[in-house]
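W.,

You were right to be curious about this one. When I first looked at the sequence I had no strong expectations either way, so I just let the prediction run and decided to look at it fresh. Below is the sequence, 324 residues in total, followed by the output.
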Amino acid sequence: MPKLKLLFAVILVSLISAAQELPKPALLVLAKNQAALVIVDPATMKVVGKVPTGVGPHELAVSADGKTAFVANYGEKTPGSTLSVIDLAARTEKKVELGALKRPHGIIQRNGKIYFTSEMAKVIASLDPATLTVDWIQGTGQNITHMLCATADGKKFFTANIVSDSVSAIEQAQIPGGWKVTAIPVGKGPEAIDMSPDEKEVWTAHSGDDGVSIVDIASLKVTETIPALTKHSNRLKFTPDGKQVLISDPEGHEVVVLDHATRKELKRVKTGGQPLGIQMAPDGSRAFIALADEGAVVAIDLKTLELVGRVATGEGSDGMAWVN
């Protein structure tokens, strides 16, 4: 009997360990209405774990070592003022209080630091993952500083400012404070934003007039505006090779695919729900689209531009991140 009990214990521990093991790669999805981070195995399109977050989780980033997720808890009627710090292996969460940096939203990782926007404070800020303290804050002077992108070296950041109809360029510079901020006028209600992989352009889709402004990073000027493409633009992402741009249109229930070089429409992919967040597989094989109303994520084959998978992830599915 003792041997049988020992064998049973070993098997039980092994099963628990297997259940907790993070798939490699893994797709992380935020279910806003359930205040949860959902872990998906992208190979099987199955949910393998779930972790609580704060209220209204909108966007997330992953630490440089792939072990920790940082979630911007936007809140609902009451503005959120925390980041959830989630140990992906242990499936545990703790919160970092942000004080006056309310409505945290866009969030990315650069050089080991976690950078995020605060809509109400009109800033971007950085969190040191080692100490879990905010160690840098830079104002934009613009209203509703929403989404965020940056160069790989972390020396240039760009934010979409919804109410100010602008993109802020925040660059390291040899001036007092060390950072130069430039407000670039764009279309009405810019929300979605992304940088081309060659770091030459920033594209922002405006939900107010449903067009796209293309900003030249060298000159910090809008060089081209693509007229209305959607009923309501929500997110915009480049494919890893930089050849295509995807824009989610929740009112049209579709994702618009553009050719980057020609700016021409390639296809409109019907998603079967209201598409919001977009996440690219780093190998360029698939794009993952979060369907908020259906509580699901669908996969698009980037070669055929056809739907090739679906997984139920929870009500209000939106922000996503990738773990290699």
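Here's what jumped out at me. Confidence is low (pLDDT under 50) at residues 4-19. And, maybe more interesting for your project: The helical segments are 2-20.

Coffee later to discuss?

I.
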